[in-house]
Design a protein that fits this description.
mainly beta; globular
């Protein structure tokens, strides 16, 4: 997690509040060099926060290790070769993943050189999104830590086999470990005590469960409500400029599973 402060000599447009949340969003496009990788990689990272004034935006950028550890150079080379031959790209699935994708072990501490070259955001004042091109270079060192991490057992599953096994909390993140039939496709949402959605939504299979990662900054997570929805139905919800409370109404209508979880020990 990186704290980000964006200052502009020109006035920034009024940014949109994202759905039924309490944050605004800027997207940052980057080129990154890591001390444990030979290649340069590119990413698009969301920065969630708020406008302090007409010239300043402050937020948090979450850099996902699951994206940083993936080395897809062999697959990209195969796609370039397929383009030259006019052939379809090779398929990546559970059986072929290891044939095309390598995963790099991330050390406990490492160095990062990052170049930001593009920033954009949705605005309530512009017909299209706000965008700024440039070149901003940063270098920093990262050290991993599990300080403040705790796990809470939930073990609730409905008749369809859909539910929550447990959750994990760190000072900045909530991970909800869900279960469900492997032939289904699901999306997990968590709301805080005030009914505001936690952002994130990154999901990875972890053994028999799926780990759903979310950011907890500026949220009251003493109690959370977890909804598990059919993935396609969830994606049909227009969440960008939704009125307060409407998002939770949609979740109540379409959720396949719902549970409330106390995290304050009471």
């Amino acid at each position: 997690y990186l704290g980000v402060r964006i200052e502009s000599e020109e006035e920034l447009p009024q940014l949109a509040t994202m759905g039924d949340t309490n944050y605004q969003l800027m997207q940052i496009m980057t080129r990154e060099d890591y001390s444990f990788r030979e290649d340069r990689i590119s990413n698009a990272w969301p920065v969630e926060g708020r406008q302090e004034d007409a010239h300043t935006f402050v937020g948090i950028m979450r850099m996902d290790y699951e994206q940083i550890r993936v080395d897809d150079r062999r697959y990209n080379e195969a796609c370039e070769e397929a383009d030259e031959k006019g052939e379809p790209y090779p398929e990546i699935n559970a059986d072929t993943y290891d044939d095309w994708i390598d995963e790099i072990e991330i050390p406990e501490a490492f160095h990062v050189d990052m170049q930001i070259y593009r920033i954009w955001a949705y605005s309530t004042e512009l017909p299209s999104r706000y965008e700024k091109l440039g070149e901003w270079n940063f270098s920093f060192r990262i050290t991993q830590s599990d300080t403040g991490m705790r796990s809470i057992s939930v073990d609730e599953v409905n008749e369809q086999g859909i539910g929550v096994d447990h959750i994990e909390l760190t000072p900045v993140e909530l991970s909800v470990y869900t279960v469900g039939p492997k032939d289904g496709s699901y999306y997990t949402v968590a709301l805080d005590r005030n009914g505001l959605a936690l952002s994130g939504g990154n999901a990875y299979r972890s053994g028999e469960t799926v780990k759903n990662e979310m950011i907890t900054a500026d949220h009251d997570i003493s109690e959370i409500t977890v909804y598990i929805c059919d993935y396609e139905s969830y994606m049909e919800i227009d969440k960008t400029l939704m009125a307060p409370g409407k998002f939770q109404e949609e979740l109540e209508e379409q959720a396949l599973f719902k549970t409330r979880i106390r995290t304050d020990g009471e």
